[in-house]
Amino acid sequence: MSLARLVWSAELLRYDFGRGHPMSPARLDLTMRLVEELGLLDTPGLEVVGVGPAPDALLETVHDPAYVAAVRRASEGVPDPARGLGTEDDPVFPGMHEAAARLVAGSVDVAQAVWEGRVQHGLNIAGGMHHARRDAASGFCIYNDAGAAIQRLLDDGARRVAYIDLDAHHGDGVEGLFWDEPQVLTVSVHQDGHTLFPGTGNPADVGGARAQGTAVNVALPPRTGSAAWLRAVDAVVPAVVREFRPDVIVSQHGADAHARDPLSDLRVSVDAQRHGARIVHGLAHELCDGRWVALGGGGYAVVDVVPLVWSSLVAEALHRPLDLALPLPSSWRAEVAEASGLDAARVLGVEEVEWRPWATGYDPGDDVDRAVLATRKHVFPLWGLDPYHD
After folding, report:
1. Where is the Histone deacetylase domain (predicted)?
2. SS3 of 339, please?
3. What is the pLDDT confidence band of residue 349, given thresholds at 50, 70 and 90?
4. Residue 111 belongs to what domain range?
């Protein structure tokens, strides 16, 4: 068994909504250049693979055939705003179908490799398009690669799949696909939907009638910082995932919870996001014999955040965690300057975050603690867990 499988090729940069759109493919390019210059691609046991576009039959495991046909037409210049195609968030571009279908193929490829025991961990930083719905594009997401990966795992025999979403925005598309599916647990830690797109993900949203407790939403107030964010993750994610006992974990690591991100109001540092990935990684080894599929997602501070968060994610999956004080390669910094005209970070992060585990006690005067307790009160009793005590 190899250690990890990473989907990457320059063709993934074709997912490009055009100049001025927040989801610039430069965030992927700069991330992978940093991953390479840090020497991570030379890790023994790492496989790097390219993929072609997913066939329609695969896309239609999570999308309506009529929607797939609409995306094909949009790729040829025929927008369909009723299906989210040709909007400000999701403008049409030539080859859109093939570009989006390639993201799906990548996430399904690594999920299959993990499930079949060929690798322990699978990585697709170009994936994590968690807003796409069965019949519509939404929030920069055309096809839902995370949902397709989860569905393939179920089709191939997984009894329980846990999906953990650490993006600043609620993972509504994945939750919606599996809302009434007891074999899938979706856990989303995000900024409160009353203050941020997509406006969903309330603590009381706990799943359909057949799957009560399998949708878990931690809705955090704006300006939640690193220590409080980690406390929220610690307070909810390990407990419900352990109770669910998944066969495999699929996680989404949008980097947009960072203070410098222009599209959210959270204040979560590179180190805190790195630690969040470590928590997920640890659960995969504790509960799933290491079976872990890690995806990218949002992240719009293209130069000074996304490459640092996602190179840290790759390093975590390769069991080679990076030192925060590690000087970033001067050659990479020069590439950033040439590509963007901006100064790149000199080190991975400023300092490690000190945070207080939930087990140390609940503070009723703290906004984040109250948000966490709301989730625990709605979800924990459905799993036979005490919302007030660990």
Report:
1. 21-315
2. helix
3. confident
4. 2-53+98-383
Q: Quick check: helix, strand or coil at residue 208?
A: coil
Pairing of strands 2-7, 119-124: parallel
- Among 229, 171, 241, smallest CA distance to 201 is for 171
Residue 87 lies in a domain: no
In a domain, 258, yes or no: yes
Is pLDDT at 390 greater than 90 in this prediction? no
Question: Using one digit for the tens of pLDDT, what is the confidence trace for 120-171?
Answer: 999 999 999 999 999 999 999 999 999 999 999 999 999 999 999 999 999 9
Exactly one of 97, 130, 131, 170 is catalytic; name it.
131
List strands edge to edge, sheet with 46-49.
46-49, 2-7, 119-124, 292-295, 248-252, 161-165, 184-191, 215-220
Tokens for 288, please give them.
Answer: 């799933």
Residues contacting 159, CB < 8 A, separation 6+: 183, 247
**Residue that the structure tokens 């945070």 belong to:** 355
For position 46, which CATH number holds?
3.40.800.20
Respond yes or no: is residue 131 known to be catalytic: yes
Number of domains in the chain: 1
CB-neighbour burial class of residue 285 (10 A; exposed 0-12, middle 13-18, buried 19+): middle
Residue 60 lies in a domain: no
In whole angstroms, how far apart are CA 150 and each of 21, 98, 160, 163, 378?
29, 21, 10, 8, 25
Q: Which long-range contacts (CB under 8 A, 24 or more apart) does 151-158 make?
A: 151/61, 151/62, 151/177, 152/58, 152/61, 152/108, 152/111, 152/112, 153/111, 153/115, 153/247, 153/248, 153/250, 154/183, 154/184, 155/61, 156/112, 156/115, 156/116, 157/115, 158/115, 158/183, 158/247, 158/248
Beta bridge partners of 124: 295
pLDDT at 342: 79
